[in-house]
Amino acid sequence: LSIVQADATTYHVAIASLEDQASGTATITVTVTDGSFTYSDVFAVTTLGTVPQIEWVDMELVCTPAVSYQWHLDGAAIAGATGQTWTPQENGLYTVETVDADGCAMTSEAHLFTSTGVGLAADRSGLRAYPVPVRGLLMVEGSQAGAHITVIDAQGRAVANATAQGERTLLDLGDLAPGRYVLRIAGHGHDQRMPVVVE
Length: 199
Hints:
Elements: E1 2-5, E2 11-14, E3 24-33, E4 38-47, E5 54-57, E6 60-63, E7 68-73, E8 76-77, E9 85-86, E10 92-99, E11 105-107, E12 111-113, E13 121-122, E14 128-130, E15 137-141, E16 148-152, E17 158-163, E18 168-172, E19 179-187, E20 190-198
Antiparallel strand pairs: 1-2, 3-4, 5-6, 6-9, 7-8, 7-10, 10-11, 10-12, 13-14, 14-15, 15-18, 16-17, 16-19, 19-20
C-alpha cells in the first residue's frame, strides 16, 4: 500500500500485490494523517479471476487451464461438457465458464464455430443465410412460410425476430452491435440453427 499526497486536499492511494485472495469482496480501511488532521475511509475491493480464453486446436476447442469447466452452446450449458477441451457437435457460439484455484468464476468471450465457408451460412436441409459477415440486411433462404426466425446473441438473448414470408426472408440487422450471433429458424417440426457474424 502506498499513499502519495497530490495537493493540500488530494491523496492518491495505490494497492499492489493482492495475491491469493479468496473470491468475493473485501473491505479495506485507509487512514491518512498529515500532522494537521486525520482522514479515514472504507472501500471495497472485488477479487476477479482471469478471463478464460478459447482456442481451436486439433479439431477441438481448448480452454486455458483452470480448476473446473462448463461449456455452453448459444448460452445453454452442454451436458457433460466439463473438461478443458470440447469437440463441437454443431455450429454455434461456444463459451466456457471456469473456476480458478481461488474459487473465482469467469466466463470466456464467445467463440464462433462453423463448418461452413465464409460468406454463406448453410446447413444440410438447404437453409441458407447470406452475406456472412453481414452489415445491415441478411437474406434467409429455404425456410417455409410462417417459420419463426430469431437472432440470438452470445448471452442467449433474442435480439431480432421475424416470421418467414416464404422461400426468402430479409432481416434488417443494422441495429445490432458487431459480434457473433446465432440464427434460429423454428416451425413446421424443424428447429435449425446456424452462426452469423455482424460487422
